[in-house]
Design goal:
The structure is a homodimer of 555-residue chains. Chain A is α/β, with parallel strands linked by helices and 555 residues long. Chain A has 19 helices and 24 strands. In chain A, a hairpin with a 2-residue loop joins β15 and β16.
């Protein structure tokens, strides 16, 4: 190996492992798109790098390239025109299997070093990545820089840290001496080798290709599994840039660059099932629909399958001693990326008799109106609004907003907005509806996008019970609760423990229910139908490798 | 809690965690059935305790008892006549779900303390357990004391150690402070709660009810999952005694004793599938047939499923510089518990041109004859033979020996033997056959019991390739290899890494391919069809619990 990337990054890796234990704030990747941090030319160069990609072929080095494919359209209203290699899995997969051995034999430390170097180089390209994420997912620039860039890098490093710790938890060699009374002891020399499960398949999602993709990608890579990156056909570029950087570092470190490869398909001719069913694939990571996630879980018994699927996130409002803070906090949560986060609240349960607040009793209708008005005010400045909303990634999501209007009484209508820079951007503000808790069919499935319901319940106890049942049946990644009564919070916590949902309590300032911080907050628990794994914990890496023991009598 | 069992056992638990990392020899449970260790009366009292069980009802405290059931017959030739409670799952399961909360809230340390106390008390009852294991599984007394008693206790403690470490890896509470430039930092108080997956179902096997059962039982219990013990209907007593001790300690510690319960069924009216499909069940551990294990894996998507199934273990003989040691070692391995171990070698691959040894060249036939003769000599003394062979657990295993004779040329015929104490004991010596490598159908499935084949291959490379393919297709838990050539050992190691099989190299003295030591040797890798998990590693416990986070703004 030309460079010892492990030595270079060891301190960072050690610190990363430490903070996954202490859950303190930490990040090696500054989240502000600042010239002081990234270099005064970084913003301009990043944008230029992105623009230079447009309408060009994108190079990935791998055996089996047979053509070109690409159909990306920016949610801000223009074709990307990028053409990616089309590859034949029957050539690629055997080649990657050949390459597995050297990557396996590199060992946990060297693999972690290569991964950390990849992440450092991705960090330096965060401006370019921000544009790539923005113009595939529709995220606004700041969010694309953070969620698509630096926070995704955090999540990647977090996975590498867990993987390194797990693989080095146990000695590689042991001398075993068993006393035998008066006879000589039995003595054995033992070696313990970490081996990967096979090839890993990382199936990218259209909205958070890097943030949701990096944990699986880096967890698999760090544990020795060569990775096939299979991006969503409409959100390829962020993962293509990622693969480019992976290959650059792998090549420098002396490995076959196609230890990380990329298979791009189209909506019309998908290849994911075919890839997932290949026996060489030992690990699959997926973020997307419940339907496809469940298909993977039920059909890919030859592989470890990690899925994040649909869910219905809830907020229970019982009472508050900070009405203004609550409303502002919720307004931001509902607006951010137009509700296209798997952590956005959808169902807001409020007693039909209303709630007590620091501004007196509010009726159910007044609570709904206060939330609607909060969103309205927050989005009144169009520049600020578009910088938070971003654009709607998929036309089907925009259509869903229009259909959802039928489900209840509209408290806040969804509006179209103009983007100051991009004239054809698909921008929509949140829709807020009122429904009755009795109409379960209206709010008990995920309505992906900027659609929320304020639901009238019999009581807070009823709200909690409905949220609990819903999460256990349909899944949930986040819950929020507002109450000035600790006994109500205790009941909500008990429900959260039962339904395995992360709970944010009385958020009224600059932390939001839909945001989680790597190294500290867990994303999903893996304990309800929204996800079968947590990003990221020790369980997320533990089954990506096995240990093979060799023993012989001591010499 | 009346007693702080964690404080009492903390040093033992800490040491157990440490040795799972260093893989040194260690055990807190002395394996010799010695009066000096266990008390001069222990042997006599243990036997008396066992005899007092016979033809009596066995008490287990749990809601929903509706009758009695029991059909155990000792492989040594007499009915046990023990009647166990028959329980209604529709009453038991909801009651256990109710009891889950208190067990969950006890936390990792207190649960580990209770588990360690259970194991300590089980250790004190190792003589009674030895008789119970002997007269259900057919193991000879010494093996029943060790594999059924002290070594099973080791495996249980090992699981508790992994579980305790995994649950306490991360802080329970964190204060998170994120700098915001010139503004005040964001500050959050976070709590992280370990929650179990639900109820655990441990499905016992007829041959090693405790050794194979304790890892799952204690891993689930230590991670907060109340456990339903479902013994094999012909091997109930060892697990019934275990449940009795669990309940005694749980009761003393202030928990509902039915946090560990037992459901006994019959071969005619099995209840395992019905239990496994209940949605309250979050974890399932199973040892047994591939058919049932695969059914669990493919149908119980609501639960974490850990299976140990059938496999075909192989020994590759290339050459040896210690022919006598090799033959003696293999003779013991083939004889121990009449080949009824999931670790017993079945397929012995030898080049058809023979091998080089310290006693000169041996033809293929001479190698086969040497092994047969080794077994013959080892079993020539009937008292020693029966003390190693034990009895055949199931009549179907004895029948299989008679059928297997057709598969090849008999090198060593299986004999019936008389037991010095028990006149109707079902005792059979190993059958050794010669077959040709071309006849794959004869040796490429598990023939459970004392049946081994010496297989003529084209070369050692051919032997290794056949073993590798067989392990990947049908599974294997153990491999042995004999070679005086390090380059051959390297090839075998490479195959072991690929097929995920533990490899024992040139065993010629008192360690055997079918024996593994807790805290040091891994049992199965979880990486081939013989088992989807390893007993025991961090992956074995990681998915038995989830972490639920609660966060709020810092006060």
């Amino acid at each position: 190996m030309s460079q010892d990337f492990y030595a270079k990054h060891q301190a960072t890796l050690d610190k990363a492992i430490e903070v996954t234990r202490t859950r303190e704030f930490w990040s090696p990747y500054p989240e502000m798109p600042s010239g002081k941090v990234y270099g005064e030319d970084a913003a301009e160069q990043g944008e230029a790098a992105f623009k230079a990609r447009l309408n060009q072929p994108f190079k990935v080095e791998m055996p089996g390239i047979v053509g070109e494919v690409g159909e990306e359209v920016s949610p801000y209203g223009f074709d990307l025109g990028i053409r990616y290699p089309k590859v034949d899995p029957d050539t690629l997969v055997p080649a990657m299997t050949e390459s597995l051995k050297a990557w396996r034999d590199a060992g946990p430390e060297q693999r972690a070093g290569v991964c950390a170097e990849i992440l450092e180089r991705l960090n330096k390209r965060s401006f370019e990545m921000a544009h790539a994420v923005m113009h595939t997912t529709g995220q606004a620039f700041m969010m694309a820089f953070q969620a698509g860039g630096t926070h995704a890098q955090d999540r990647g490093l977090e996975a590498v840290a867990y993987a390194l710790e797990a693989q080095t938890r146990t000695v590689g060699e042991a001398h075993w001496v068993k006393p035998q009374g008066k006879r000589d002891p039995l003595e054995m020399d033992k070696r313990f080798r970490v081996v990967p499960r096979g090839l890993a398949l990382m199936i990218g999602v259209s909205t958070f290709p890097t943030w949701n993709g990096y944990p699986g990608l880096f967890a698999s890579l760090a544990t020795g599994n060569p990775v096939i990156v299979k991006p969503h056909p409409h959100t390829v570029l962020p993962l293509a840039i990622t693969v480019e950087v992976c290959q650059e570092v792998l090549r420098e470190a002396g490995f076959d660059p196609w230890v990380v490869s990329m298979v791009v398909d189209t909506r019309e001719a998908p290849v994911t099932k075919e890839l997932a069913l290949r026996e060489e694939v030992g690990v699959i990571d997926f973020t997307g629909s419940s339907e496809f996630g469940e298909w993977l879980e039920r059909n890919c018994h030859h592989a470890q399958v990690y899925t994040e699927k649909a869910g219905v996130n809830a907020v229970v409002i019982d009472s508050t001693d900070n009405l203004k803070g609550m409303v502002q906090n919720l307004a931001f949560s509902l607006s951010l990326y137009s509700g296209q986060m798997c952590t956005t609240p959808q169902d807001i349960f409020v007693p039909r008799d209303g709630i007590e607040t620091d501004q007196g009793h509010l009726s159910f209708d007044e609570v709904a109106e206060a939330i609607a008005d909060g969103v309205r005010k927050f989005l009144s400045d169009n520049d600020r609004a578009t910088a938070v909303l971003g654009a709607i990634q998929a036309p089907v999501t925009a259509d869903r907003i229009d259909e959802a209007v039928k489900l209840g009484e509209v408290v806040l209508a969804s509006e179209r907005r103009e983007h100051p820079q991009f004239e054809n951007a698909r921008i929509r503000t949140p829709l807020v509806l009122k429904v009755d808790a009795a109409d379960e069919d209206k709010y008990s499935r995920e309505l992906f996008g900027p659609i929320s319901m304020v639901i009238a319940t019999d009581s807070t106890a009823d709200s909690i019970e409905r949220a609990r049942r819903l999460a256990k049946a349909k899944g949930a990644i986040t819950w929020g609760v507002y109450s000035a009564d600790e006994s109500v919070l205790d009941q909500m916590e008990e429900a959260a423990l039962d339904a395995n949902v992360a709970l944010s309590i009385n958020l009224t300032s600059g932390v939001y229910v839909n945001q989680t911080a790597a190294f500290s907050d867990y994303h999903a628990t893996g304990g309800n139908p929204a996800a079968n794994a947590c990003l990221c914990d020790a369980a997320f890496v533990a089954n990506r490798f096995r240990v093979v023991e060799m023993r012989r009598h001591a010499a």
